[in-house]
Amino acid sequence: MRQASIYNDGQLAGILTENENGYTFQYDAAYLQSDGAGAISLTLPLSEKPYTSLILFPFFDGLIPEGWLLDIAEKSWKIDRHDRMSLLLACCKDCIGAISVIPISNEE
Asked: What local confidence, expressed as pLDDT, does residue 95 receive?
């Protein structure tokens, strides 16, 4: 299982999880109750219920670099271009725009 904290304008908005069943995005309860809460995407409106998908949500997949920048990421970090979660975790800590993806360490 791999997870990432999703920040919107520096505020924790929710948690993205990848497991054997696919992907889940859950908004943070404190974020939902905050005055400035806004949906991170039109396809992921504010909700207390988790969103699930068999593939990486298109919004998050769209944050991953393309073209020559993707080639550099693949070669530098030795990540397969089909491993979308690894690319998201490696490349999207400081995206253009309001969203940041920060890996959560699951060391046990």
From this structure: 77
